[in-house]
Amino acid sequence: MPQEWDARNQIYHVAARCPHIRLPVDAVPERRIQVFGYLDEHLLHLAQKDVSLAQLKGILKWTLEGIASLHELDISCNDIKTDNMLIQIRTGTSSIEAEQVLITDLEDAIHLGPGGVPKGAPLGNIVWRNPEAHVEGPMGTLSDIFAFGSICIYVVTKMLIFAVNNPDSSEDDKLGTVLFRRMSYFADEIGFQGLL
Predict the structure, then answer these.
(1) DSSP assignment of 30-52, as one string?
(2) Which site in 38, 107, 123, 160 is 20 to 30 Å from 129, CA atoms measured?
(3) pTM of the entire predicted model
């Protein structure tokens, strides 16, 4: 899907009503550059630190509120992943406490419209992408929820259960490994046949 300047700006314009969404603070239109505010941390890194489960649950709650607010406006993010969950850490405390959580990188986001579910574009990161998108199936709000569920597993277990750790693997090998892991964790016979 083309990442067109006007379409991206329209997504951000509509998303301005949503809580927990990182919006541009400035832009350089002639260069098609958007400028965003800085936040301290992202969830991929923060979840590996000594953070209480209560804090992590709070971060996940804020993230889900952001996703839900996009879905209420028929916007599918299509790139929900831990390093797109930015966190501002509260300063002056002895423990790590989240002050703000924002979903960033809406460049793959699309406005679905009534009943709209795009197909054919495997958007988002291979580790967090829903199984249907890997085989050019439908993407939409359920894709975001699948990715969010995968994030919850990571935050609680501190394991990237779908990650491919071999940097020498080809993209096809990585995809095969990710799909195999998805099926081994979640598939039943009906789901497997549906994927085929």
Answers:
(1) GGTEEEE---SEEHHHHTTSS--
(2) 38
(3) 0.86
Cα separation, 103 vs 79, whole angstroms: 10
| Contact status, residue 181 vs residue 129, Cβ threshold 8 Å | no
Q: How far apart are the first and last CA of the chain?
A: 24
pLDDT at 2: 41
pLDDT at 115: 62
Alpha-helical segments (H) within the chain:
5-15, 43-46, 53-72, 131-134, 141-157, 171-186, 189-195
Contact 27, 33 (CB under 8 A): yes
| Distances 56 to 36, 63, 135 between C-alpha atoms, Å | 24, 11, 32
What are the tens digits of pLDDT across the range 155-196?
Answer: 999 988 888 887 777 877 888 888 888 878 877 888 777 766
Q: Which residue in 25, 139, 29 sits closest to 75, CA to CA? A: 139
85-139: pLDDT as tens digits: 999 998 777 788 899 999 999 988 888 876 666 666 667 778 888 777 777 777 7
**What are the Cα distances from residue 45, in Å, to 81, 83, 97, 144?**
12, 8, 14, 20
| pLDDT in the model for residue 192 | 73
Distances 88 to 25, 112, 120 between C-alpha atoms, Å? 16, 30, 35
